[in-house]
Amino acid sequence: VHQKEYLSNGFMKAWNGPSHEVYSPVALAQPDGSYARKLIGTYPVCTEKEALEALDAAVAAYDNGRGAWPTMGVDGRIKCVERFTQKIIAQKDIVVKLIMWEIGKSYADSVKEFDRTVEYIYATIDALKNLDRQSSRFEIEQGIVAQVRRSPLGVVLCMGPFNYPLNETFTTLIPALIMGNTILFKPPKHGTLLFYPLLEAFRDSFPEGVVNTIYGRGHAIVPALMQSGKVNVLTLIGASKVADELKKLHPKVNRLRAILGLDAKNAAIITQHADLKLAVEETVLGALSFNGQRCTALKIAFVHRSKVDAFLELLTQAVSKLKYGMPWEKGVSLTPLPEPHKPAYLNECIEDAQAHGAKVVNPGGGTAFESFVYPAILYPVNEKMKLYREEQFGPIIPVVAFDDLEEPIQYLIESTHGQQVSVFSQYASEIASLIDPLVNQVSRVNINCQCQRGPDAFPFTGRKDSAEGTLSVVDALRSFSIRSLVATKFNENNKQ
Ligand code: G3H
Q1: In this structure, are residues 374 and 367 in contact, taking their beta carbons and an 8 Å threshold?
Q2: 306-316: per-residue pLDDT in tens?
Q3: According to the lineage, what is the superkingdom (predicted)?
Q4: What span, in angstroms and rounded, lies between the C-alpha atoms of 69 and 352?
Q5: What is the DSSP letter of 265?
Q6: Is 171 in contact with 458 (CB distance < 8 Å)?
């Protein structure tokens, strides 16, 4: 897919500037027996000036809240989003293929990502209808009648991640849009091409300048956008370091709203009373779905010392049954990694753990070939190792033995992350005693199940460096708007 046009100011434009070549992580066998990544497309590389022009288009379309979009009213905006959704559904096949080729996600998971995104949009529309009914009401206090409503915030700069390029982009872009904001949107570096088939849908569904797409290297174009002071809301699903740096560039950082989904190091706590079979099944799902490249993934397992040997044995068996292969192969769950640097980074983490006394428990664990990395279970992991604190975002399961439940709790207290934790125990009293200490460290405690974002109606957030603001079908609508009111005082001169 070679992009010859891009969407700016709400319109498609011919592109004559420099392009970035996209090589698929899927390396294919060549006639000479070697393997090569396939060139699957190009995308335009915008200059700072072009990015700023697109930002100005979003500013003009918002027009200080007087633009056609922010003043359209909820029903009109819902109709536009419905029209847009119909148009993107028509592009499902090509978008799913591009997800597979660009980020190496399995066919089943790519379809799931697409369908979940469409369901999310429809759920957002329903939620907005409800929210509008509830929040557009009249309140009377001390002779003042107030009509309460929710109003937009301005221009939203929206950047999604590579691991859910479609879904996580739209879980911020759609709620921001439907609440009346105008959008400047940069697709993720890995996961750009899949937006091409949707550009015309944007152009044909929304007024000019309401959704503007920019491409290129984030570090080259995004700082200028932030420095301009014209971005009212920054929404990013990505690294906390990047979010911190970008926020600092805004001249009025205290006036900037940030809705962020960031780093996480979610832990599993497997107590001496855990159902080990269940704990292993959920750990495999939690740690290795999409090769561990999920912010919600389980990234470290604390196992009671009395259960460690049995846990490692069952986990090794379960991992050995996972099928790896190309994204389009049936039943495949381990696939190529899109980030070229990732295999070397994961190897570095494994070597560092080995140097500090851990062993790769499962046969072949950590073996890399091209962009594949076979999952590694490492034990015993301790605080001297990178893997103890660092978010590996890949197929490694570090296992730590503990004697007292206070140890994993202390780990979470000291952590800079605070997204989720999973607790495995069959004793209700043990679980009950853990809930308060844990829920005050992370934003979601999962009992006898893996960490995850869904169901999407549940609030999705995190403590500490893991998030800012809250996402979900309903919470995102609130996050991208402000509660405002029109208050009228009734008196003798104001009877009508
Ligand atoms: O990477 C973070 C995603 O929000 C994870 O979502 O738990 O549904 O896989 P998920």
Answers
A1: yes
A2: 999 999 999 99
A3: Bacteria
A4: 53
A5: -
A6: no
